[in-house]
Amino acid sequence: MEKFDYKGKIQVYGAMFDGVNDIILHALKGISKDGVYVGEESQRYPCFDSEDYASESRYYWNFVFAKSKTELKDRMQKLKAMPVIGSNFKKLNNELHPMGYWGGDTNYPVEMTTEETKTFEKVTFKEIGKLDMVIAFDTTGSMAAYIEAVRSEVADLVPRLFKENDDLRLGIVAFGDYCDMKSAHEFGDAYQCMTLTNNENDLIKFIRETKNTSGGDGDEFYELVIKKIVEETPWRENSTRAILLISDADPHPLGYTYENYVVGNQIDWRKEAEKAARKKIKIDTVTITNAAWYKELSAMTNGISVPFETGNKTARLVEAATMARGSVMSRAKFDELADNCEDEEMRQVFCSYSKERNDI
User: Fold this and answer.
1) Are 210 and 180 in contact (CB under 8 A)?
2) Does 332 map to a domain?
3) Which of these, 42, 106, 268, 317, is most buried using a 10 Å CB contact count?
4) 300-335: per-residue pLDDT in tens?
5) What pTM was estimated for this model as a whole?
6) Same domain, 185 and 324
7) Where's the VWFA domain (predicted)?
8) For residue 340, what are the CA distances in angstroms to 92, 331, 345, 346?
9) How far is CA 26 from its chain centroid?
10) CATH number where 343 lies
11) Strands (E), 228-280
């Protein structure tokens, strides 16, 4: 993404707009700028301006651009059908590149998609069955119940996964937060990792022996977890790559500090998501809470935002997520499980992964 001052010049398809107000003007009047048409979708929000000390109305703006009215009509239909993938009515997505977003306040820059960071294109399956899958569990507080559910079934679960796909490599990450680290330079139980492997016994042993963590404050170091998994996992060439993030909190913001373990956090989860997308790594998330960043993270990486929240069904979630993108045999098993599923929550899980496969 590229950011511009709201009064600064913004070039799209060779046309030079004199700031965001010029873009809005052309959109509302339905006129072109040097042959470039603009479409907008906006949402009003009431706010209080501390500078003017008065209540006022502002708008969140999403913009699309086209070289003809016919093309603009098509793009506008797609824009209106797109879900909000960020906070504040934000739909910024390279699926409709070039596209722009403005938060409606003079303090906000105008964000524009760029060719260089075209991270939202479809991530197609590579070699059928060649699946590299990392399951990342938040082990803090109530989230510990989710990995505990997998621990209780792991001896049966892991062999089932590999029985249907002999080209599966599975990795496990169990993590807490900065406060769970042994020191500023030693993770300890804060980041427990079994890298990609097809050794069933090692996986079973590792999952059984993972430790729960406390987590401390409300947010967790998801930004660091995503960064480490994306950068440190030995992803195979031409594999289908996926991360299933089972968690319920928010990442730490930029500038976050905890003692001397992290001082002025500089890891931006969106930047890490863009790295994942460039490496064709899907990140699936679960909707245990309604935190908006999960859906945005999955949308950015072409992953699945899975409607799931019940801890004791986590092993079934892992099975569905792994088999959906695996070998021909594992996909057939996935279809069988989906057809015979009577649990409404799990039916939604199967439906989410089936839709992805049908859309490819």
Assistant:
1) no
2) yes
3) 317
4) 999 999 989 999 999 999 999 999 999 989 999 999
5) 0.67
6) yes
7) 132-337
8) 38, 14, 13, 11
9) 33
10) 3.40.50.410
11) 240-246
